[in-house]
Amino acid sequence: MSAPMLLRERAPAKVNLTLHVRGRRADGYHELDSLVAFAGCAADLLTLAPGPGLSLAVSGPFGDAAGPDDDNLVIRAARSAAERVEGLALGAFTLVKRVPVAAGLGGGSADAAAALRLLAQANGLSPDDPRLVDAAAATGSDVPACLRSRAARMEGRGERLTEVKLDPQPAVLMNPLRPVGTAEVFRALGLAPGETFVPPGPAGAAPGDPEAEIARGRNDLEAAAVRIAPEIGAGLVLLASQHGCRGVRMSGSGATVFGLFSTAQEARRAARALSAAAPGWWVRSTMLR
Ligand SMILES: C[C@](O)(CO)[C@H](O)COP(=O)(O)OP(=O)(O)OC[C@H]1O[C@@H](n2ccc(N)nc2=O)[C@H](O)[C@@H]1O
Ligand SMILES: Nc1ncnc2c1ncn2[C@@H]1O[C@H](COP(=O)(O)OP(=O)(O)OP(=O)(O)O)[C@@H](O)[C@H]1O
């Protein structure tokens, strides 16, 4: 008797090392230019037992916050793939939700992307299959980048991706466990459809050298998000005060903030100090790549 097949995938959190808003398109979405990387030590876990039907069981510290299972991005991605690939075998998913929800870490997008990778494996498809890439884009703006889960430049709404050679970045992630809605933050920028975004301050570095781009870049959603959740500002100050911190910024639409460090040891030490200094916050040291 053989055991039923169980496939596993990690769904690493996404961090926007830079996030530049170009403007608002006629369709209401914002045109972006963002360097994204992925966190080794902050990830959800997915399994798939291929078989008839489609189901999802969610557990883990943030399982309740992910919303009803039928609405979960895992199910939405699977349905989206099934619409595009005739005869696609689905099955029973489990999700252990360890990344905070509505946190600017693309947790739901990472889960959707991991579900597509599992379906690719179960059906003998490449995760780069254009039908799966199309299903990813239809599920959410961050899902195509999460499908690859490697450092990249993300342009447009997230559908244009270019690989970026990035040295692994020791980092600390901090989140106050206050959900911040992505749509609300974009709305707070106050751009009309068709309007160009004028960044405050100097332009960032030209594309080519990721280190310079990160050092001189911005997150154009940061000011709007701080108005909605002022604790983001407190998190940035706390992170910046840590020994060895090279720079701090918010990820995505917040409220997660990150600090970059020169060594993994400094990042781990800072994470220990911050866990004590900011009780109630989610704090992780990780390597971004
Ligand atoms: C902020 C980022 O996380 C940066 O990586 C993404 O742009 C957001 O990605 P996401 O969470 O997958 O977002 P989606 O689910 O596609 O969009 C949520 C909502 O955010 C707004 N939105 C999102 C992306 C974008 N480029 N412009 C927007 O205006 C829209 O109101 C949209 O209805
Ligand atoms: N698997 C999932 N994990 C997390 N949230 C999910 C999931 N499925 C659906 N959702 C819903 O999606 C919304 C956004 O959650 P998510 O954690 O992806 O946001 P985020 O980290 O702010 O994303 P971004 O960085 O793309 O702005 C939540 O309101 C949540 O209810």
From TrEMBL:
<feature type="active site">
    <location>
        <position position="14"/>
    </location>
</feature>
<dbReference type="GO" id="GO:0019288">
    <property type="term" value="P:isopentenyl diphosphate biosynthetic process, methylerythritol 4-phosphate pathway"/>
</dbReference>
<comment type="function">
    <text>Catalyzes the phosphorylation of the position 2 hydroxy group of 4-diphosphocytidyl-2C-methyl-D-erythritol.</text>
</comment>
<dbReference type="InterPro" id="IPR036554">
    <property type="entry name" value="GHMP_kinase_C_sf"/>
</dbReference>
<dbReference type="InterPro" id="IPR020568">
    <property type="entry name" value="Ribosomal_Su5_D2-typ_SF"/>
</dbReference>
<comment type="similarity">
    <text>Belongs to the GHMP kinase family. IspE subfamily.</text>
</comment>
<comment type="pathway">
    <text>Isoprenoid biosynthesis; isopentenyl diphosphate biosynthesis via DXP pathway; isopentenyl diphosphate from 1-deoxy-D-xylulose 5-phosphate: step 3/6.</text>
</comment>
<keyword id="KW-0808">Transferase</keyword>
<dbReference type="Pfam" id="PF08544">
    <property type="entry name" value="GHMP_kinases_C"/>
</dbReference>
<feature type="binding site">
    <location>
        <begin position="100"/>
        <end position="110"/>
    </location>
    <ligand>
        <name>ATP</name>
    </ligand>
</feature>
<feature type="active site">
    <location>
        <position position="142"/>
    </location>
</feature>
<dbReference type="InterPro" id="IPR013750">
    <property type="entry name" value="GHMP_kinase_C_dom"/>
</dbReference>
<dbReference type="InterPro" id="IPR004424">
    <property type="entry name" value="IspE"/>
</dbReference>
<dbReference type="InterPro" id="IPR006204">
    <property type="entry name" value="GHMP_kinase_N_dom"/>
</dbReference>
<dbReference type="GO" id="GO:0005524">
    <property type="term" value="F:ATP binding"/>
</dbReference>
<dbReference type="GO" id="GO:0050515">
    <property type="term" value="F:4-(cytidine 5'-diphospho)-2-C-methyl-D-erythritol kinase activity"/>
</dbReference>
<dbReference type="GO" id="GO:0016114">
    <property type="term" value="P:terpenoid biosynthetic process"/>
</dbReference>
<keyword id="KW-0414">Isoprene biosynthesis</keyword>
<protein>
    <recommendedName>
        <fullName>4-diphosphocytidyl-2-C-methyl-D-erythritol kinase</fullName>
        <ecNumber>2.7.1.148</ecNumber>
    </recommendedName>
</protein>
<feature type="domain" description="GHMP kinase N-terminal">
    <location>
        <begin position="72"/>
        <end position="148"/>
    </location>
</feature>
<keyword id="KW-0418">Kinase</keyword>
<dbReference type="InterPro" id="IPR014721">
    <property type="entry name" value="Ribsml_uS5_D2-typ_fold_subgr"/>
</dbReference>
<keyword id="KW-0067">ATP-binding</keyword>
<feature type="domain" description="GHMP kinase C-terminal">
    <location>
        <begin position="221"/>
        <end position="277"/>
    </location>
</feature>
<keyword id="KW-0547">Nucleotide-binding</keyword>
<dbReference type="Pfam" id="PF00288">
    <property type="entry name" value="GHMP_kinases_N"/>
</dbReference>
